Amino acid sequence: METTATLMILSLILCNITISAALHWRKALYPSAFRVKRGTPALLNPSIQTSVEDANLLYEVLWSGLSVEAEKGVLRVTDKELASLRRLQSLEVVCDDILPRTLSDIRRLCYHLEQRHGHLNREDFERTLLTMVYTSQRLAQTTPGHQRELWADALLQLYKAIKGDLRAE
Q: Where is the signal peptide (predicted)?
């Protein structure tokens, strides 16, 4: 009787540890994506790429250029014609509300990316790519010194995460 009770307790503990470990790896890289900021549920966890056309549009936006607004520190599409497209509303939400903008938040993201196993989901991949674009813009705007080295290290870590995700099988 005692052996059965002990085995049941050990089973429950093992089950709890397994569930906790599984939930740890499923932790959101961008938790702000799950908070509605603009008052509409359609923008909950927004994704930029929902079709091949959207992927091509994002490529065109990246190719035409994104710039960091100095006072707010958010990414903006430099091409006014592209920026006016309604289809880019989710890009604006991602850049304004979801992407990390401080060096400490970006370094925290890099740490979480290093801890992950397997592929990033589509949303996390595009957000990591946009964070890398933002980081490169901030690196270019930072004066030489210790802060510049930290931004450069964060950019390198994000690059490694993207490259590792593309290589993962």
A: 1-22
Specify whether the CB–CB gap between 151 and 138 falls below 8 A.
yes
Question: What are the residue ranges of helices labelled H in the chain?
Answer: 2-25, 52-64, 80-83, 89-93, 103-115, 122-141, 146-167
The count of structural domains within the chain is 1
Coil, strand or helix: which one is 77? strand
**Rounded to whole angstroms, how far apart are CA atoms 9 and 3?**
10
Domain hosting 50: range is 31-167
How much is the mean pLDDT over the chain?
77
- HSE toward the beta carbon, residue 159, CA cutoff 13 A: 8
User: Measured between alpha carbons, how far is residue 124 from residues 25, 80, 94, 159 in Å?
Assistant: 14, 27, 11, 14
Per-residue confidence (pLDDT) for residue 24, from 0 to 100: 42
Is 35 within the bounds of a domain? yes
Report the distance separating Cα 86 and Cα 89, nearest Å.
6
**139: which residues sit within 8 A by CB, 6+ positions away?**
148, 151, 152, 155
